Amino acid sequence: MLKKAFFKAVIFTLLLTLCIYGAGLVFQPKRVQLQPDTTAKVRGFYAEGKKSLDVVFCGTSKVFCLINPNQLWLEQGFTSYDFATNEQPLWITYYYVKEALKYQKPKLIVLDVYCAAYGEEEPRNAVTRAGLDFLSLSPNKLEAALDNDALKELPSYVFPLLRYHDRWSSLSKDDYKYAIYNAKNPMHGYSPMYMVNPQEKPEGLEGQPIGTLAPRAEEYLLKTIELIKSEGVDLLLLNTPYCISPQSQSKFNRVAQIAEEQGVPFLDCNLLLDDIGLDYSKDYIDLVHTNVVGSEKIGKYVGDYIKQNYTLPDSRGNPAYTWWEESAQLWLNYNAERLPTLGTAEADEKLEGLLL
Amino acid sequence: MEFNSIPFLIFFPIVTLIYFLMPHKFRWIWLLITSYFFYMCWNAKYAILMFFSTFTTYSSGLLIAKAKTTGAKKLWVALSFIINLAILAVFKYYDALIAPTLNSLFSFAHIGISVPMFDLLLPVGISFYTFQSLSYTVDVYRGDMHPVKNLGKYALFVSFFPQLVAGPIERTPTLVHQFDEVHYFDYVRIKEGLLRMLWGFFEKVVIADRLAVVVNQVYNNYTEYSGLTFAIATVMFAFQLLCDFSAYSNIALGSAKVMGFTLMENFKRPYFAKSVADFWRRWHISMSSWFRDYLYFPLGGSRGGKLKKCRNLMITFLVTGLWHGATWNMAIFGFLNGLFQCISVLTQSIREKVCKLLGLEHKAFSHRLFQVILIFTQFCLTLVFVRSQSFAQAVYILKQALHPNPWIFTDGTLLTLGLSQTEFWFACLLIVFYMAVQLFQRNRSIITEIGKQHIVLRWMVYLSGVMAIVIFGAYGQGYDAQQFIYFQF
User: Fold this and answer.
1) Total of domains in chain A
2) Cβ of B184 under 8 Å from any chain A Cβ?
3) Tell me, what CATH number does A207's domain have?
4) Quick check: A78 and A312 in contact, CB under 8 A?
């Protein structure tokens, strides 16, 4: 009887686990409403296929709003992906880099260092969740969860129902429709923005002293550099241009110092504004994000820099890369349709179906 | 360690597994160790207090049995009661009730004396284990029970973890001998025990803790609400209290059953009671029967005419009220329940005459429904004093409840009660569901009925039960695990 009872208990536990896991997929909030939402970006990364990317951009929205992989493909011929989420601190980016190295083994990782200027030691739960929820379940995800959230929350990263069960009264059609989301992302993680909000060009950035970084930010910056180096993958530190204050620039001067000590190139775009040619009165949607016009200029500059400094293949015309040809065409059509709305009331952040 | 906590979900399976793996002879020692561990998870120091109560009542049993004269027996009973009730008075009533009341009286009489406060933390479950151990003293005195020789087994009777902190308040004749019984691993019994625990968890985290949101919102911000909102909140409090306490009892009975022990039923559909006396035969049975057997009967019970019966009822209910909490509001709760029962006793013949005159049929559904609603409403009235923080608040709420404002159902007021519209109606649906389950169980057990079904249906019910708790339970971020209400008693 004991044997039978044990067998029944095992089967029941398995069924229950399956139910709790399955329901968790439905209850987990689907971040698919707005352009910067992360579900399609993170899941799309896995859908690209293993070892199919030449370059992976890791970091914050200052990557996925400013770097367009389709543009890089069309202009430079290499494949890339914006594997980034909103306001992602370096202590989460570290695990994204680990994930990128595990799934893609790219030739180059471009690390957005915008969050090195963060002073915030404690991770905010919404940011942590947005960053980690849609990573595939793996020891790396659990390690990231342990590092960024309370121990008692760990089970909820395996069974999201434990965290999101109280959404039962607000479930939408999307929650069921995208419960299992493995679609390819034709934007390759990029979020094109069509609003225009004039900004002032930052001044007085040259000659600032070398500042200090928050200890945790510096620790994870160094850990990430070491990790990428140990895997034999090239690394480029990148700070995309924004309306930075001179005080903040001193923090990036510290990043430059670290880069020099570590022998890693650092492209600090805030100090290269004249070369990039951004028009602050037309190319921005807010203090830190550019619209499609601004991102095109940055993409051109960063793309040229990568092409000149790294040996990357040009896969255009290669029959094995039809997905890239298709997605680039989709992007061109989408942009042609949306570009006339630039700066108008119609230019909002809502998704227009392309990503789904 | 609360039942609705992760530590208990780890503690219980480990204790049970080792319990079944141990030789029968030593199992009671294992239960004693784990029961003390369970208690010490709250406050290790207070385990000494519990042991002291155990030791004094244990000794009283031996001394009573040895005593030659009735006078000597009575002396030991009195001593056991004085010591244990004094501990209870100091730890439960001194800071909360005795000292503030004395200070108010001195101040009122302009006497310059101030009674000091001790700031003692209320030991969890003190009312429960004190009464449980005192019943032993009386049972030995009355000859209903031979004194227990083994101090360890007696200590286990007082501290048995399933019922330690919130009952049921067991009696020695029904529990102690079970520690000598041989309990085998019985699949059906264990399954039924686990199902009972599952239902308990459902009552607690799905129903009681959800209703608590509305109750807390309205009662903690009572000046913002009026009229029928208080009726809604009070009815919800009635179900919160029942589900909360019944949940604890079900988890206690279920976990004891898993290990092979039978504890006494504590609730029998109290909100279907048709008279006040009937209600108290169904509500917290282990406590009300304790007061009946060890207070009401010794006072004379219903002997000596209606007036004496009413006096005894009033005393019993006043003490019952104060047992529930060291506040004057609790005393009023007890007083009102006693009063309602006295009115019921005194008006019985008049009510019967009126019924006869009007041709009302006692067994008619309408008549029974009227009785059920009347008794429930009376109980709700008394609960206003239980939930209110002060006498003034209770009076304010009762006064306000006299101004009906039915527009609250349509003007959006319901959305200000702490739950969204969907959640609010879901909470109402849960009450209906709960009552339907109670009705179903009138003359059969739902657990036995489920057990008769095909395995597919059975497992679907089990899985749905667990999933309902995981999905609809009030836990996780945004909720602090709500303590069982009866812990404070």
Assistant:
1) 1
2) no
3) 3.40.50.1110
4) yes
